[in-house]
Amino acid sequence: MTSDTTRVVPVDEARTLGERALASLGFTAEEARVITDHLIDSALCGYDYIGLPRVLTIAEDPRTRQDRTPIRIVRETQLSLLLDGGNHTGYYAVHHATERAIEKARAAGVAIVGLHNSYLSGRNAYYLEMIAKAGLVGIHIASALPVVLPHGGMRAALGTNPLAMGFPSQRGPVIFDMGTASMMRSDVIFHSRVRRDLPEGVALDAAGHPTRNADEALLGGILPFGGHKGYGLSFAIQAMCLLAGAALPRNQVQDYGFLFVVFDPELLIPAEQFKRQVEELIRKVKATPLRPGHSEILIPSERAFRERDRRRKEGVPLALPVYEKLIAMARGQGG
């Protein structure tokens, strides 16, 4: 299926395309598989801007051309783990940190895991779904380089700094994932790639003027969501991620850090009781009378999971400029 601006690619073809494009950048087969699995899942869930277009962002990031070293343990206790990501992209390093958090939480009931010396981790709901499928509860926050303006400021000082939570229920994982910026930087980059205007009220240009031009926004800054409240939450996340060692690699407090708190619900109440209660909460919320113009109340992650089921059959839409660049990379003609 094609249109003037989009090509819909079968899932297997999209996965092969992503892996070959990443291989052209020097990623191993394992790294390319882990990264591509994440990107394909993001696209299936309806987040086109953090699907395969992110391969192009990885290619453009100067850290991708720098040496990578094995992920290593900096500090470990029975309940905690601090990891140096070895300059691996977050798609790979944070995936590893998630697996270690699950492992430690299963063994001890709770785990606090931090990771630094990494970048570009993608959609945090992906990691929380891994945790919830393991029967555990998870909270994940991440800080990044400054691209978001503090409330009242004209210069970027914070990352887009997402917060995600996930937990099991009788119907499967329930995930909440939000950025603390009015728009994620990856989405601004995607708007730039496809030459699309930004929504009103999400960004300023370098002179501090409101702009809908994505290129100007990338030179200026993104506004926090919710005014001073979103700014406050973003600041708190940036500060908390210092516990993950964000400042250790380059002695910069405005840098990437990834922090997980994962625990077994059995520490508090029986796990099956918790799952039943979450399911009851879902039913009660969805049974709320609807306002005019609304057909259904959705719970967090419900729309994404439905979209994933649909796109698995129909394929992954790719903007033509992105598709053409990925094809060139996969053929060794770019990257």
Give the structural class. Answer: alpha+beta
Look at the structure and give the CATH class: Alpha Beta
Kindly state the number of beta strands. 11
Order of helices and strands: EHHHEEHEHEEEHEHEHEHHEH
How many separate domains?
Answer: 1
Describe this structure in words.
This protein has helices at 11-23, 29-44, 53-60, 90-108, 124-133, 185-193, 214-219, 228-240, 271-286, 302-314, 320-330; strands spanning 6-9, 72-76, 80-84, 110-116, 137-143, 163-167, 174-178, 203-204, 221-222, 257-263, 316-319. It has 335 residues and is an alpha+beta fold. It has a single domain (6-181, 224-270, 303-330), classed as Ribosomal Protein S8, Chain: A, domain 1 (2-Layer Sandwich), CATH 3.30.1370.60. It has a seven-stranded mixed sheet with strand order 2-3-4-10-5-6-7, sandwiched between helices. A two-stranded antiparallel ribbon has the order 1-11. The protein has a two-stranded antiparallel ribbon with strand order 8-9. Helix 1 crosses helix 2 and helix 1 packs across helix 11. The chain starts with 5 loop residues before the first strand and ends in a 5-residue tail after the last helix. The model has no long low-confidence stretch (mean pLDDT 95).
